[in-house]
């Protein structure tokens, strides 16, 4: 909490002194900016156990758009890549790209109206197996178990007699529900998909709580079509099933890449001549980058923080992660994208 307050004070001073504005103008003369968003949810929805760093509110997102329009032309990823290739830094305004990972339902309800209001564009990366389904990410199913199980059973107490070692480790995590969720996700992200599913199933059984969530978390294909027709939204691939690619063999990676790309093309959700890609969880290595190129994608974004110079590798593009706690006012938002907090 103290560290957060210090960052808030620093941001206010940097903004009022004019130092932040000077820094932004210096950056925009030589680099382009890509921002990472996930969800845009109303304040009442933040009472849920959301994965840390996964959301901003509509009011906050609107303030971000207004701030960015002072320095950038907010464009699609395709337009930003084209500008970089042509090296138009001296003849056109610098570009900022708003990217949204996963294609959550709240993009349709809370983001599209603001894109239309301010006439700006966004790029959304879709995990195609989840679109139009009632499936949820394992992180959300885990949050459901921790949130509900924590109210009835002390996790650290029940963990002693659980046969599954990984499940036992999750049960022994201490702290608030948000802290336990954050720790659990960090542990499981290094595991295979099969191991994760087994741990969640065993945890569900131990707690006596159903592991499945009901309702739809992600966009429908009808909504994707409408968003595409709006002219304010472009789509890209986030693989088919959102698995962490370096943990998979070559055949499975190719299936993830080709299946997603072909689905997007068949749904007419993308321009076949330029389909952007987003590495799930940002995990990539030389093998994965090469396979994404070979699969015919036009560019790929990571979660490596920073701005992109005009000669940046289009398959290792950096992004600045945006979330509510660090960007709830414009001073903090500016310092966040400047790389100061």
Q: What is the helical fraction, as a range of percent? A: 40-55%
Radius of gyration: 21 Å
Low-pLDDT stretches: none
Average pLDDT number: 89
What is the strand content?
A: 5-15%
Counted by DSSP, the helix tally is 15
Which outline best applies?
Answer: globular
Q: From the helix content, strand content and strand pairing, which structural class follows?
A: alpha/beta
List SSEs in N-to-C order.
Answer: HHEEEHEHEHEHHHHHHEHEHEEEHH
Describe this structure as you would to a colleague.
By secondary structure, this protein is α/β, with parallel strands linked by helices. Among the domains are: 138-207, no CATH class; 220-265 and 292-300, no CATH class. 48% of the residues lie in helices and 12% in strands. It contains 15 helices and eleven strands. It has helices at residues 2-17, 19-28, 58-68, 77-86, 105-118, 138-152, 155-158, 165-171, 177-188, 193-207, 221-230, 250-266, 286-294, 324-327, 330-337; strands at 31-37, 39-40, 55-56, 73-75, 95-101, 122-126, 233-237, 276-278, 299-301, 308-309, 320-321. Helix 4 (77-86) links the parallel strand 4 (73-75) and strand 5 (95-101). Helix 3 runs parallel beside helix 5 (105-118), helix 6 packs across helix 9 (177-188) and helix 8 crosses helix 10. It is globular, with a radius of gyration of 21 Å. The two termini are 14 Å apart. The model has no long low-confidence stretch (mean pLDDT 89).
């Amino acid at each position: 909490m103290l560290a957060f307050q210090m960052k808030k004070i620093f941001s206010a001073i940097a903004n009022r002194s004019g130092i932040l504005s000077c820094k932004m103008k210096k950056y925009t003369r030589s680099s382009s900016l890509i921002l990472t968003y996930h969800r845009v949810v109303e304040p009442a929805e933040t009472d849920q156990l959301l994965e840390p760093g996964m959301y901003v509110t509509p009011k906050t997102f609107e303030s971000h758009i207004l701030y960015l329009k002072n320095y950038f032309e907010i464009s699609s990823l395709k337009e930003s890549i084209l500008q970089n290739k042509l090296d138009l830094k001296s003849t056109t305004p610098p570009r900022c790209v708003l990217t949204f990972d996963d294609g959550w339902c709240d993009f349709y309800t809370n983001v599209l109206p603001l894109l239309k209001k301010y006439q700006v564009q966004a790029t959304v990366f879709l995990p195609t197996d989840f679109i139009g389904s009632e499936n949820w990410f394992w992180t959300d199913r885990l949050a459901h178990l921790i949130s509900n199980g924590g109210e009835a059973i002390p996790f650290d107490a029940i963990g002693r007699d659980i046969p599954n070692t990984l499940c036992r480790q999750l049960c022994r995590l201490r702290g608030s529900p948000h802290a336990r969720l954050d720790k659990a996700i960090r542990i499981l992200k290094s595991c295979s998909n099969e191991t994760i599913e087994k741990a969640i199933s065993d945890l569900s059984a131990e707690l006596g709580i159903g592991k499945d969530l009901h309702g739809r978390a992600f966009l429908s294909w009808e909504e994707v079509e409408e968003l595409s027709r709006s002219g304010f939204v472009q789509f890209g691939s986030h693989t088919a099933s959102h698995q962490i690619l370096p943990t998979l063999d070559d055949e499975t990676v190719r299936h993830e890449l080709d299946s997603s790309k072909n689905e997007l093309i068949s749904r007419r959700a993308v321009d076949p001549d330029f389909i952007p890609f987003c590495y799930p969880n940002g995990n990539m290595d030389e093998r994965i980058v090469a396979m994404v190129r070979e699969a015919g994608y036009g560019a790929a974004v990571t979660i490596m923080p920073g701005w992109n110079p005009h000669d940046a590798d289009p398959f290792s593009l950096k992004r600045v992660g945006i979330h509510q706690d660090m960007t709830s006012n414009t001073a903090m938002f500016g310092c966040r994208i400047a790389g100061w907090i």
